């Protein structure tokens, strides 16, 4: 069974930074591309960033390019999302997603709230 455990959300002022973490089991980490999605109130869940497990390639939504960085620690089976220069429009519940195909999650974490105040 795939389990993804997120942490690191919170409240931050605009221009601030947060780092999200998503821990997975070793088989999950080896088998799936890992990434992040978010869902703001009243909106559909959207792709944020992903990291291809086979070669480390990274992918980002245009709205976060240059501000967010996805990375992984293979020893800890953990993927991170470093979020800098946060904007109020980044406010959402952020979900970790295990993906066989980039941009389409097969399994989800429980979500972590990120709130950016203006």
Rg, rounded, reads: 13 Å
Structural class: mainly beta
Number of strands: 11
Coarse shape:
globular
Number of helices: 1
Characterise this structure.
The N and C termini lie far apart (40 Å). With 118 residues, this protein is mainly beta. It is globular. A hairpin with a 6-residue loop joins strand 4 and strand 5 (46-51). Strands 2, 4, 5, 6, 9, 10 and 11 form a seven-stranded mixed β-sheet that branches. It is built from one helix and eleven strands, in the order E-E-E-H-E-E-E-E-E-E-E-E. Helix content is 5%, strand content 54%.
Question: Topology, please?
Answer:
Layout: E1 4-7, E2 10-13, E3 18-24, H1 26-31, E4 33-39, E5 46-51, E6 58-60, E7 68-73, E8 78-83, E9 92-101, E10 104-108, E11 112-117
Brief characterization of the structure:
The model has no long low-confidence stretch (mean pLDDT 96). This protein is mainly β. It is 5% helix and 54% strand.
Keywords summarizing the entry:
118 residues, mainly beta, seven-stranded mixed β-sheet, four-stranded antiparallel β-sheet, 1 helix
């Amino acid at each position: 069974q795939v389990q993804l455990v997120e942490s690191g959300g919170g409240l931050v002022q605009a221009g601030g930074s947060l780092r999200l973490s998503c821990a997975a089991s070793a088989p999950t980490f080896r088998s799936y591309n890992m990434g992040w999605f978010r869902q703001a109130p009243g909106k559909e869940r959207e792709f944020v960033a992903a990291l291809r497990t086979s070669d480390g390639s990274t992918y980002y939504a245009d709205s976060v390019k240059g501000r967010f960085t996805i990375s992984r620690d293979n020893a800890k089976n953990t993927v991170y999302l470093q979020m800098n220069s946060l904007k109020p429009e980044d406010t959402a519940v952020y979900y970790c997603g295990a993906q066989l195909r980039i941009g389409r999650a097969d399994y989800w974490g429980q979500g972590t709230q990120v709130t950016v105040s203006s």
